[in-house]
Amino acid sequence: MPVPLYQAQAELFRTLGHPLRIRVLELLCEGPKQVRELLAAIEVEAPNLSQQLAVLRRAGLVTARREGPTVVYELAGADVSEMMRAARRILTELLADQHELLAELEQTR
Protein backbone atom coordinates (compact mmCIF):
# COMPACT_ATOMS: atom_id res chain seq x y z
CA MET A 1 0.00 0.00 0.00
CA PRO A 2 1.47 3.39 -0.98
CA VAL A 3 2.29 5.95 1.69
CA PRO A 4 -0.15 8.90 1.72
CA LEU A 5 1.31 12.16 0.46
CA TYR A 6 0.90 13.88 3.83
CA GLN A 7 2.95 11.14 5.52
CA ALA A 8 5.71 11.45 2.94
CA GLN A 9 5.71 15.22 3.42
CA ALA A 10 5.89 14.82 7.20
CA GLU A 11 8.90 12.52 6.79
CA LEU A 12 10.59 15.10 4.57
CA PHE A 13 10.06 17.79 7.19
CA ARG A 14 11.37 15.46 9.93
CA THR A 15 14.49 15.01 7.82
CA LEU A 16 14.85 18.79 7.67
CA GLY A 17 14.35 19.07 11.43
CA HIS A 18 18.05 19.04 12.31
CA PRO A 19 20.15 22.25 12.27
CA LEU A 20 23.23 20.50 10.92
CA ARG A 21 21.28 19.11 7.95
CA ILE A 22 19.92 22.57 7.20
CA ARG A 23 23.44 24.01 7.33
CA VAL A 24 24.70 21.33 4.93
CA LEU A 25 21.88 22.06 2.50
CA GLU A 26 22.56 25.80 2.71
CA LEU A 27 26.23 25.21 1.89
CA LEU A 28 25.35 22.89 -0.98
CA CYS A 29 23.06 25.58 -2.42
CA GLU A 30 26.33 27.35 -3.27
CA GLY A 31 27.45 24.34 -5.32
CA PRO A 32 29.00 20.88 -4.91
CA LYS A 33 31.36 20.49 -1.96
CA GLN A 34 33.94 17.95 -0.91
CA VAL A 35 33.48 16.47 2.54
CA ARG A 36 36.58 18.29 3.79
CA GLU A 37 35.06 21.61 2.66
CA LEU A 38 31.87 20.86 4.55
CA LEU A 39 33.86 19.90 7.64
CA ALA A 40 35.83 23.16 7.50
CA ALA A 41 32.70 25.28 7.05
CA ILE A 42 30.62 23.59 9.73
CA GLU A 43 33.31 22.74 12.28
CA VAL A 44 31.74 19.48 13.39
CA GLU A 45 33.25 16.04 13.99
CA ALA A 46 33.55 13.91 10.85
CA PRO A 47 31.37 11.02 12.14
CA ASN A 48 28.53 13.43 12.98
CA LEU A 49 28.70 15.05 9.54
CA SER A 50 28.84 11.65 7.89
CA GLN A 51 25.73 10.54 9.75
CA GLN A 52 23.79 13.65 8.73
CA LEU A 53 24.92 13.37 5.10
CA ALA A 54 23.70 9.76 5.07
CA VAL A 55 20.26 10.89 6.29
CA LEU A 56 20.10 13.53 3.55
CA ARG A 57 21.23 10.99 0.95
CA ARG A 58 18.60 8.43 2.02
CA ALA A 59 15.94 11.14 1.82
CA GLY A 60 17.01 11.91 -1.74
CA LEU A 61 17.96 15.51 -0.99
CA VAL A 62 21.66 15.16 -1.81
CA THR A 63 23.77 12.96 -4.03
CA ALA A 64 27.34 11.82 -3.58
CA ARG A 65 30.01 10.93 -6.09
CA ARG A 66 33.58 9.80 -5.77
CA GLU A 67 36.40 11.77 -7.30
CA GLY A 68 39.44 9.65 -6.55
CA PRO A 69 39.82 9.43 -2.78
CA THR A 70 37.35 12.27 -2.21
CA VAL A 71 33.56 12.24 -1.93
CA VAL A 72 31.72 15.24 -3.37
CA TYR A 73 28.16 16.05 -2.30
CA GLU A 74 25.63 18.15 -4.14
CA LEU A 75 21.93 18.90 -4.02
CA ALA A 76 19.81 16.29 -5.74
CA GLY A 77 18.11 18.95 -7.83
CA ALA A 78 17.15 22.58 -8.25
CA ASP A 79 13.94 21.96 -6.31
CA VAL A 80 15.97 21.40 -3.13
CA SER A 81 17.64 24.76 -3.60
CA GLU A 82 14.27 26.40 -4.24
CA MET A 83 12.88 24.78 -1.09
CA MET A 84 15.72 26.29 0.93
CA ARG A 85 15.13 29.73 -0.59
CA ALA A 86 11.39 29.43 0.12
CA ALA A 87 12.15 28.54 3.75
CA ARG A 88 14.30 31.66 4.06
CA ARG A 89 11.55 33.83 2.58
CA ILE A 90 8.95 32.40 4.95
CA LEU A 91 11.23 32.83 7.95
CA THR A 92 12.07 36.39 6.93
CA GLU A 93 8.37 37.25 6.75
CA LEU A 94 7.65 35.62 10.10
CA LEU A 95 10.49 37.47 11.79
CA ALA A 96 9.45 40.77 10.20
CA ASP A 97 5.94 40.29 11.57
CA GLN A 98 7.34 39.55 15.02
CA HIS A 99 9.55 42.64 14.83
CA GLU A 100 6.52 44.77 14.01
CA LEU A 101 4.58 43.27 16.91
CA LEU A 102 7.50 43.92 19.26
CA ALA A 103 7.66 47.54 18.11
CA GLU A 104 3.93 47.93 18.81
CA LEU A 105 4.32 46.44 22.27
CA GLU A 106 7.19 48.77 23.11
CA GLN A 107 5.14 51.79 22.03
CA THR A 108 2.32 50.88 24.42
CA ARG A 109 4.52 50.89 27.52
Features of the shown structure:
alpha+beta; 67% helix; 3-stranded antiparallel sheet
Overview of the structural elements:
The chain is an alpha+beta fold. 67% of the residues lie in helices and 13% in strands. The protein has helices at 5-15, 19-29, 35-42, 46-58, 78-107, and strands at 33-34, 62-67, 70-75. A 3-stranded antiparallel β-sheet has the order 1-3-2. The protein is globular. The N and C termini lie far apart (58 Å).
- Report the biggest beta sheet as strand number plus sense, adding barrel if it closes: 3 strands, antiparallel
Query: How confident is the prediction overall: mean pLDDT?
Result: 93
Strand order of the largest sheet: 1-3-2
Radius of gyration in whole Å, from Cα? Answer: 18 Å
% residues in beta strands: 5-15%
State the gist of this model.
The chain has 109 residues and is of the alpha+beta class. It has helices at 5-15, 19-29, 35-42, 46-58, 78-107; strands at 33-34, 62-67, 70-75. The longest helix is centred in the C-terminal third of the chain and has 30 residues, at 78-107.
